[in-house]
Write a structure and sequence with these properties.
Layout: H1 2-57, H2 65-68, H3 75-87, H4 96-114, E1 120-128, E2 132-135, E3 145-148, E4 152-160, E5 170-176, H5 186-203, E6 213-219, H6 227-235, E7 242-250, E8 257-262, H7 265-274, H8 282-290, H9 299-305, E9 310-315, H10 336-353, H11 355-364, H12 369-372, E10 374-379, E11 382-387
Parallel strand pairs: 5-6, 5-7, 7-9
Antiparallel strand pairs: 1-4, 2-3, 4-6, 8-9, 10-11
This protein binds zinc ion.
Zinc ion binds at residues 176, 188-189, 222, 249-250.
InterPro entries: Fxna-like_M28_dom, M28_fam, Peptidase_M28
Keywords: Endoplasmic reticulum, Glycoprotein, Hydrolase, Membrane, Metal-binding, Metalloprotease, Protease, Transmembrane, Transmembrane helix, Zinc
Domain Peptidase M28: 161-347
Amino acid sequence: MPRGQASSVSTHERPRVDAAVVSDKDNGRHRRSAYLLLGLLIVFLHGSWSVYRMQFANLPLPLDAEQAGKRGFSEASALKHVKYLTGLGPHPVGSDSLDLAVQYVYAEAEKIKKAAHPDVDVQLELFHTDIGANRLAGGLFKGKTILYSDLKHVILRFVPKYLPEAEENLILVSSHIDTVFTTGGAGDCSSCVGVMLELARGVAQWAHGFKSGVLFLFNTGEEEGLVGAHSFITQHHWRNSVRFAVDLEAMGIGGKSTLFQGTHQWALESFATVAKYPSAQIAIQDIFNSGATNSATDFQIYLEVAGLPGLDFAYTDMTSVYHTKNDKMEHLKPGSLQHNGENMLAFLLHAASSQKFMEDAHEAKQESVEQKKAIFFDILASIWWSIRNA
Ligand SMILES: [Zn+2]
């Protein structure tokens, strides 16, 4: 009995022990699987975050004036301009505050002219436009005729003194001083004007070695239907010497200044090769062209009206503040202006010094708009591109 009992106990209990062992093993396996999955999830999230940071949020360290030196780009110096312009409050076309903003930009441009390299010819002009009408075939203002008159733009042109023919080959860098009536426009586009003034300060020390000239256009009237750019490109006496257009914009505030519209492989290649922190996303152009952002940029004028090749850059962080009272300096991430400024300075120095770049620009003027369209994007700050078939 005891044996039998023993045997009966063993025959009945063993399965329970086995079941318990099996169940423990299962639990252990499930626990290990759960840990593995959790681990993989953490690795995935960490990887995604790192890629996101590298792709969108990785900004350079801002430099002060001393660190940047005479020929470099300083975010601290550019920010002083942004601070002054934003401090004026909203400055739409027709307002007294816009007059003050234009006077400020002109006065700063005068300082740049005075401090320029002695072998650089600097022309500074306050351009009053005549009456004009802008009628575009596409985009946000398609089919509308927008009349304008008496706009004021600040124009600053750099040409090497001992190469007068450079006057006939100008690279245009353009942005707008005016804002919409709701905001002082820290992002849109005081940040662009600040970058352009600081860029011009640097270009003034380099331009004696250029083969082409560089013309900075600080326009007013962009927010009224792109009429600032239109008035320049249809009325100004230097308009026919412009061979290439660079437009700086904001569809939000700060972050990377991203190339989102552009023409021609050689132009994209030039930017991708020399920019210190290249950033480009064609997808933004598609969103932009779909009308979802309800915006347009001066680049459309340079492409559609003037037939120029060019590149269009925009800040696209915090798009929710675009054209609202929250477009404020406090949202401007450190490094944003440094990112834009260093990229642009490197690009301008390259483009204005390259004979080939200007020859390509001349040739491009003859092509149709469809031939000029290109597809491009960057992956982790390196640019790949391809050309869309016409
Ligand atoms: Zn703008």
